[in-house]
Amino acid sequence: MINLTLNNQQLSVTGGSTILDAAKNLGINIPTLCHFNGYKSNTSCMICVVHELKTDSLIPACSMPVEEGMQIETSNERVWEARKDTLDLLLSEHVGDCEAPCQRACPANMNIPLMIRQIQEKNFEEAIITVKKDIAFPAVLGRICPAPCERGCHRKYYDNPVSICYLKRFAADVDLAKESQYRPYVKPNSGKKVAIIGAGPTGLSAAYYIAQFGHYCCIFDRNSKPGGLLQYEVHDEKLPKSILNAEIEQILELGVELRLKQTLGKNLNISELKDDYNAVVLALGKTDPNLFKNSEIELSSRGIVVNRKTYETNVPGIFTGGNAISEGKMAIRSVAHGKYIANSVNQFVNGRTITGHPQRFNSVLGKLQDGEAEEFIKEAEVFNRVVPAESFEIGYSVNESVKESKRCFHCDCRKPESCKLRQYSDEYGANQRQFKFGQRKRFQKNVKHDLIILEPGKCIKCNLCIEITKKAGEKLSFTFINRGFDVQLTVPFNESLNNGLQKVAKECVEACPTAALAWRNGEEESDIDKK
């Protein structure tokens, strides 16, 4: 038995154990990327370094055997900085997007690629669930949104962007046409009450998501009809009021109360609402400063002063967004603000720290280089944008929507949640641009497998798939070619991925710490066992 100190705790472990083993005995987690149970440690990533105090050195926990009298710290400033440097270096040559550029360009951060895949598979019920997770008015926005998401679409480098807005509208219209429309799960009544002043896109969107948290919502509006600018300033030809009113009704059906002809400064008073409700949301649109003369709410020349991350005003319990903080012409912006406000309101009324909408680390590929669109087109159809046969006012038919969805490059990551590189980059605050080595590597994609995809630019050279294929006796085990910075994972002799992964494709995908090896249909749809 070997005696050592680990994070100021004395313990004895069997000789031959690694520091990683010793930490696990104490329930202490040490991050690893190149370590996988049952295979020898390659010590290639060095994210598992710990601080040995007696020698004042950083050592890899996954491969270093314990020694008598060691004094180990698994997390301190020096260890943290070393791990962050490791991640920054790995990210400097990482070629790929965590989130597709269309999703990043969407103010509501909607999972557009997932919606497109669901439409392609004619899974329209799941498609509307995906859309409404982030957008409360998809049928409305599908008609009036200027489509910032399409400006981000990588397909523009090949011919024309995917018609994302029309696909979103299609999914929403299919749902509206059903007798039993999609209704999100609403948590049991929390006993909390939220007042929302303004029944425009920001206020209605906030109510839609606040209600789902189980909080009672009451919307007050000065007009005789809800909808704000959408109701009174957008022409029927562009946005039929029947569509707007149908989506508003879906929000009210969640238990949201609507009180019309209620005007702030006349029959509404902020201080009284603040006394009667657990939180107040100001979704007034362009704000008249005179309404807040006797309040403590801070104003600027643009509108109400707000924390842009949490949408809090300077007064605790009062939140705002949309045109109340600065004028903008995009309804999607206001709808997105409503969603983000709801998250902060929920945190506030539950007594939690208000952090706002969670921000994830995102690897960004950026502008496509010459020839890279041809790599992405491997998973897409080559025909140009589908034009609705009847008219753009009518929108897509089922067949047209499915056909258009097949144009998607599927440039989002296949492992957005299980990728360890992303998880640790979040945890350690990694910076993809910390180290720059000239022009980035060229994006490549290998789709010559029925179920698996290989993206060499996401490989961190952990060697795990090479060890797994060798141990399994694959005739064409994975290997590295080239040297130095040009080293690349591949199947030898230019053979297909199908021939290289005949026995242990599943094991290799599960072991891969990034999305270099992934299921073509995404991390939740691995059906290789059914083949």
How would you describe the overall organization of this protein?
This protein is α/β, with parallel strands linked by helices and 531 residues long. It has 4 domains: 2-75, Roll (Ubiquitin-like (UB roll)), CATH 3.10.20.740; 101-181 and 368-405, Fumarate Reductase Iron-sulfur Protein, Chain B, domain 2; 193-349, 3-Layer(bba) Sandwich (FAD/NAD(P)-binding domain); 439-530, Alpha-Beta Plaits (2-Layer Sandwich). The chain has 19 helices and 14 strands. The strands form 4 sheets. The chain has a 5-stranded mixed β-sheet with strand order 2-1-5-3-4, with helices on both faces. β6 (193-197), α9 (201-212) and β7 form a beta-alpha-beta unit. α4 runs antiparallel to α5 and α9 runs parallel beside α13 (331-349). The protein is globular and about 75 Å long. Residues 525-531 have low confidence and may be disordered.
Largest sheet: 5 strands, mixed
From the N-terminal CA to the C-terminal CA, the straight-line distance is: 48 Å
β-strand percent reads 5-15%
Order of strands, main sheet, comes to 2-1-5-3-4
Q: What is the 3D form?
A: globular
Number of contiguous helices = 19
Question: Count of DSSP E strands?
Answer: 14
Structure classification: alpha/beta
CATH class of the largest domain: Alpha Beta
Q: Level of helix content?
A: 25-40%
Overall number of domains: 4
Q: Which residue ranges are poorly predicted, with pLDDT under 50 across at least 5 consecutive positions?
A: 525-531
Rg measurement, Å: 27 Å
| CATH superfamily heading of the largest domain | FAD/NAD(P)-binding domain
Mean pLDDT: 93
